[in-house]
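User: I'm writing a tutorial on reading structure tokens. Could you give me a worked example: one chain, its sequence, then its tokens, then a sentence or two explaining what the tokens reveal?
Assistant: Sure. Here is the example chain.
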Amino acid sequence: MIREICKDEKFLAQKAELATLQDISIAEDLLETLKHHKSGCVGMAANMIGINKRIIAFDNNGEYMVMFNPEIIKKSEQYQTEESCLSLTGTRSTKRWKSIKVKYQNDKFQERFKTFTGFTAQIIQHEIDHCNGIII
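And here are its predicted structure tokens:
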């Protein structure tokens, strides 16, 4: 189901709760909502559709990917950039890392580790910030 985009900064500033197997349908809605907004959006966190769970979905070089309970465990080469967000107006300055290693769970809640670089790494960092209640 395509969900409405949450723009409530008080809600977005809350730290998200851990996702569980019972949250699979939330991930499906998140992915469907992301695909609906693909012309202006490359990633979303569950709080952007009004659900305070640690779930993100993003475009991984042309293929969509969903992560449950993502956590950055390694990072390198910090840089300054500007980003926009469907939940916020305008662009904002922020610092990101060129390379990140992420620990997460897949849709079967199996623990996985993966390294991402470049723009995909930037997208993931933005969405994990959402999970952590960080508004850039």
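What the tokens reveal: The longest helix spans residues 118-131. Residues 9-131 form a domain with the Peptide Deformylase fold (CATH 3.90.45.10).
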